[in-house]
Description:
With 133 residues, the protein is of the alpha/beta class. It has one domain (2-131): 5'-nuclease (Rossmann fold, 3-Layer(aba) Sandwich), CATH 3.40.50. The protein contains seven helices and six strands; from the N terminus they run E-H-H-E-H-H-E-H-E-H-E-E-H.
Amino acid sequence: MKVIFDTNVLLSSLLFPGFSTKVYDFCAVSYNIFSSDWLLDELSRKLTGKFKLTDEEAEEYLNLLKQRMSVVHPFNERPNACRDADDNHVHQLADYIWADCIITGDKDLLILEKYQETQILSPRQFYTSYIER
């Protein structure tokens, strides 16, 4: 299974270890996690901006994540599927890798439930559907 974690879930799993961390750890062992430079840059900006981490601390977190995921460079066209233009980067990645699932807490993405053949689930929905069964 090919899984994408949206930035908000990665932030939660890194900074507030708990449920999102459990889902991420399960996926890191059981599935293939993918990300893109754009998503990791967004994560870095939020770590250093909103959460006031130093550049070195943010880089340390990013390096930990990169050990457990594949970072790809999508060159396909970015779709216009979301009202939040930044979310279209997630869809671009999903198209590029033929993702099975996007795990997110973003309401703009969750309301779609599915993007083409890619399921869009919250960490709780993913847990119930794939881990708890």
